[in-house]
Amino acid sequence: MRHQSSVSTEIVRETKLRERQPAAGQYLRAGAVVALAFLSLSAMAIQGPPKNTAPGQRKAVQTKSVPKTDQPSDPDLAWMQDALQNPELMAEFTQLVEKLQKGIQYPGPRNQSRILPRLAESTTFYAAVPNYGETMHQALQIFQQELKESTPLRDFLRKNKLDTSEPEIENGFEKFYEFSQYLGDEIVIAGKLEGQNPSGYAIAEVKKPGVREFLQKINNELITTKSDRLRVFSPEQLAAAGAGDAAPGPVVLVRQDVIAIGFSLAALRELNAQLDQGGAKFTSNALGQRIMQAYQGGASSLFAIDLHKVLNVIPQITPQTRMILEKTGFADIKYLLGESTTSADGTTSQGELTFDGPRHGVASWVASPGPMGGLDFVSANASQAGDILLKSPAQILDDLRDMMGEAAFANVPQMEAQLNVNLKQDLLSKLAGEIAYEVGTPPANAAGPKTPSIKMILRVSDPDGLQQTMTKLLALAPFERGEREEDGVTFHTLSSASAAGGPGSDINYFFLDGYLVIASDSATAKDALRAHRSGNSLAKSGKLRNSLARGQSANASIVSYQDFGQMMGSMLAQLPPEMRQLGPLIGNIKTEPSVFHVYAEPTAFRGVSNSSVQSEASVALVVAAVAIPSLLRSRSAANDSAAVSAVRTINTAQVMYNVDYSENGYAANLAALGSGGGDCAGKKGTAEHACLVDGVLANPSCIGGKWCVKDGYKFTVRGVCLQARCLNYVVTATPENASAAGKSFCSTSDGVIRSHSGAPLAAPLSVAECKAWAPVR
């Protein structure tokens, strides 16, 4: 018989050995978390401890992932792709973004915190965000009004069956808003390190009474399992709580003045004692004082962490590693602080990394702020560019020798002798330390591969000396060299043939006004020269100047520049033809460049950045349009893989069924391989329900050619039977979505899995039809 083949026999032997081992079961434990940081309520799944099966119990053959029937499936992204292909709907989306920008009011900057001065001195990390309840409520009202007025939006929700879930989302926002009304204008997340483990909580002021009753309402309305309800304590109840109250999950402390949430009774007890008794305050140390200073300047959101304390809890390392860390200069790090202010126009963020003393080692490589002449060779229409000022490259080499030791450079003298070049004197000493770059976006209509153009601009202190060194080095390189004179400038060309026989590379470089410009092609080199001489460069375009906040200097240590508007054309060119109609819609959304400036000071790095709400919306839209088709393809591939795995599982189960119930032969349908809807734990399977396949893939309804659905595919088994004994079978798997083309799979008692691409099947296959398909490789 076929099932007695060596392969099938090995499968049966291996499976029976696994049955003798305890099997790990899983159960989900639902919980609810009050997310004070964002003023929302959400569900959280917590995995319980493993549960062993009874000795000797048969273990159902399962695929790698067996979803529970009550567990939500992965969200289908097809509805979003449908939205992106609908120009009328996207026009409505653009209009909604504009209404939200004009109609909602963000919380104003806060000039002080009522929470900060009450925290303990041991606080290691601190984050504060505004109470966005009113802002989100305004956004919901604008959306609800747009939904009433927009037929395309209503039709879209109805078509994709999202209209049934939309009221639930609105209800969640309403609960969000209702909860926010009990809280003050700020939510703080703070805590400390206990050993290497963080211990913290979220805390907010209580603005009006009733928050305890509101949480009880949430428990009653949203959390059906009593054991999973929020554990809400008063200070007295918290003090009296015993070991039985220390179950996993969120714990809420409700006082008259504040509400706090954490996952540790001990952390909330410590916070409660600090609030009652006072003691050493967070604002007595340098980080707390710096946070207070940030509030005085006005801030919407704040983040800070004491990095010095974090470094101190790193496990013990070798003295040599510790010495290297100290030589890098980062052993002296003190704290990291970031702050941002949000308005309808966008977000301005500032940050600083502070050191305990003057920067040294690697931390000192970034030079003090100064003019950035390299940006004068960057096009005013650049999509991505940047500039960095470093200290002398020769000094950087000395730092590396000090950190790594002379042994790491033992081969350098031999290399220098072979090249007839002294690395430090002939090369690094000729460079001044400034490095600028530009990455150009290829034209959408460019022929051939769309590769970006690249410029590298280096400030040099000795152009003639550097040219002599480069001539020596390039003489040994596999390049064909050339020179040409254009507009009084000597362009040097380095050409190399392609290994594949196609067009080779053509690198160009030239020296001008104290800079070495290296370009990926001749056109890019000419563009750099034209930008420098015409004044139509990024440095002179005003885009950098317009990005500066009041009082902010244009002289920086590092500048990073991105113009998403310039990137749109290239991104749109990657879209499928049916989605390129998004171009005019996105073009109507104004985008502003995003610029990040870093200023290196003797004991700190300070950074400033800005972003536009409209730019973020348009970029997110294009990224979604580019990414979602790929995600859909990836998900389809994952479903295909899961389907093959499920078919293989059914084949294995059929072999086992034929061994255990040889008088029946193979199972006539999927239901016979499943549990019959019951629990197989501690029970022996029967010929009617063998408990060999999980209940999702083989539920009791899968008889008579009916389908079972799992992971985007539907499955069925048809037995080839004679006088109640099935001598063969065919398992068929086909995509669940009848309107989507894809792969279908099948297999018979020969164990070979076969596939066919095309429209999903309406009926199960016969054995002959299955064997006509191509085997899966």
Would you give an account of this structure?
This protein has 777 residues and is an alpha+beta fold. Helix content is 33%, strand content 26%. Strand 19 and strand 20 (515-519) form a beta hairpin. Helix 12 (319-328) runs antiparallel to helix 13 (393-404). The two termini are 25 Å apart.
Short recap of the structure:
With 777 residues, the chain is of the alpha+beta class.
Helix-strand blueprint:
Elements: H1 6-19, E1 24-25, E2 28-35, E3 40-47, E4 51-52, H2 78-84, H3 87-103, E5 125-130, H4 133-149, H5 151-159, H6 166-180, E6 183-194, E7 197-206, H7 211-222, E8 231-233, H8 235-240, E9 251-254, E10 258-262, H9 265-277, H10 286-296, E11 301-306, H11 307-312, H12 319-328, E12 333-343, E13 346-355, E14 384-389, H13 393-404, H14 412-419, H15 423-427, E15 431-440, E16 453-460, H16 463-474, E17 480-486, E18 489-496, E19 505-512, E20 515-519, H17 522-534, H18 543-546, E21 558-562, H19 564-573, H20 582-587, E22 594-601, E23 604-612, H21 613-660, E24 708-710, E25 713-722, E26 725-735, E27 742-748, E28 753-758, H22 767-771, E29 774-775
Helix pairs in contact: 1-21, 2-21, 3-4, 4-6, 12-13, 19-21
